[in-house]
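A brief tutorial aside. Many learners find it easier to grasp structure tokens once they have seen a single protein encoded end to end. The record that follows does exactly this for Gnt-I system. Read the sequence first, then the structure, and try to relate runs of similar tokens to stretches of the chain.
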Amino acid sequence: MSFVFLLISIAVLILLITWLKINPFIAFLISSIVAGILLGIPLELLAGSIQKGIGSLLGDLVIIIVMGAMLGKLVAESGAAQRISDVLMGIFGIKNVTWAMMLTGLVVGIPLFYNVGFVLLVPLVFTVSYQYKLPAVYVGIPLLAALSVTHGFLPPHPSPAALVAQFGANMGLTLVYGLFIAVPTIIIAGPFFAKFLKKIEAKPLATFQAKPKAESELPGTFNSFFSALFPVFLLIGTTILSLQLSEGHALFPLIKFIGDPGMVMLISILLATYTLGIRMKFKTEALMDIYVVATKDIAMILLIIAGAGALKEVLMASGVSKEIADALQGWDVHPLILAWTITAIIRVAVGSATVAGLTTAGIIAPMVGMGHVDPNLLVLSIGAGSLMFSHFNDGGFWLYKEYFNLSVKDTILSWSLMETIVAVVGLLGVLVLDIFI
């Protein structure tokens, strides 16, 4: 019965947004209340669950998204994004723009958390789209597919790294297997799928659409790439150092602090303020105005993501994800398919890839101990399932929709289908790899 109540709650959310045209943040709050009542959460605890969901998700993301928006706005206004796009187009050509975006997303996405990568690279997508008169969705989906795959499949991202530890898998081997599967998955969900999205009309946020500058006004190539990608370099460096140093080393706490995604973005915006701002003759007041505008433009995005966090917390507090997982545990199917299926259903129901993956891990773990499945492939199978059909209860859905300024329908036809392709092709890749291992 819980699953029926879950479907009713999601239906309420969809109807509020698509039929009644209610603001998504308000719609999330209403549907969270409906879900909590139907699923039996005591009324005196329901408000607390909603507040906890909002606070926990914003606590993880607000620094990253706000600082990322500021950095993205500066990268656009300074001309750095234009310089980067010019270099990429010079290498790949306009005909191969989707491949250029895919490669950028893959390289940057391996060390960078998804939300950081999104807010960092989306301005580049919009700049290329604006400068070369190409559809923004067509340009952006290959890059976002790469970011999504690296987030779900490859350690050191949180969910796959946690699964590696829980299953006793080998981090390096999982990464190698993951790359074998990730590359063809990204190609299919990125450049190939993007060919069908050229007619989707997007109106990206104006804050990231800086007008083209004269060549003499652009920052240098090194400065542009270094400033825009400094978060990547910093995160790679701190990750390597944290793996080399023991927890008892005097520098270990400092490295972990600097390597936190929020601190990475703060340090990066301070650096870019000088390299792309003051050094390029921007006045401090003008730079601060740029940051204020960037923050205003993403305020509603933060609220919508917060609303998704409220619904997610209510569903978690009700125990519905655990009920769904337990109901599927007795299925007589291949362990890799079973793990993928359980994860995919929880992902669609709850909205969180990480929650879906870690919930499934607790159910599937005994199979590893019995030697029924390769633990490295199990990590990848769960990772693929955790990306299945992102929709209304996923913060990533709204992040994409609001940044690209799309309708709900076009968001589903592009973003949700791309995520589904990633999940299905990823599973097929795992099963093919299982034949040879």
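Self-check: The chain has one domain: 2-436. If you spotted this yourself, you are ready for the next section.
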